[in-house]
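Bit of a strange request maybe. I'm writing a small parser for structure token strings and I need a real example to test against, not something I typed by hand. Could someone generate the tokens for this chain?
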Amino acid sequence: MKFKAITYLAVSALIIPALFIYATKPRHMEKKEKVIALLKAIETGASEPVAVINPNKYIQHNLGAEDGLAGFGKLLQQLPPKSAKVNTVRVFQDGDYVFAHTDYNFFGPKIGFDIFRFEDGKIVEHWDNLQEKPSTPNPSGHTMTDGSTEAKDPDKTAVNKQLVKNFVEDILVNGKMEKLTGYFNGDNYIQHNPQIPDQLSGLGAALSEMAKQGITMKYDKIHKVLGEGNFVLVVSEGHLGGKHSSFYDLFRVENGKIAEHWDTIEEIPAKDQWKNNNGKF
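Reply from user aminoacidic:
Good idea to test on real output. This should exercise your parser:
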């Protein structure tokens, strides 16, 4: 297949410059496949996946990167040679949005959620949330990315999104703890947060311990609720330990109850440290 290069960004002699060639006719791929290939290109330097980005409209919400495709290239220039590793563990689609859960080595080991918005078949906007990857599993032996990966029950996407949104609003935003047990099937609950063990009782014990240590966690506002089948991602803004933070929570629903949870929490820097003016959300 022939490509007409219309945008070129030299990254470095050690990262294939053609990574940032924008092509007018990328090969046909589904949106989820395009996202997986694009993220993997950070590691491999492959040029073709970058063709999915529209360089004339690309809006960046990672506050550590300058806006546009050029900002993404400038960020990658700072990577030590051959240091990036990318393993996308799960990826889902909700209309024009694709959200991915990835194990990165990107300026150090991290776990991240990425959200991409498509328009006319091209990526035009990106959000993400990154957290340092712990060296050991959580108290129940789970990592931040293991567990179920395949979406089920596509006909229940809307009802599952509403269920999870209600949970976050009731419990995490408004603190209506009397409603907590209604969202779970007894004590059956798998937890992937690095600090919290399985089971609803484990969650309660962890939150109590945080309170004893004076560590407060408050969700102030929900910004996005995206889902495919029994997986729902909620993007929220709030404070952890008094620090302005972004919360990305991924839930798996089973038989109308929350059954599994993954998350990343990232501190939002002061505005004078932002590399773009698009905001975190």
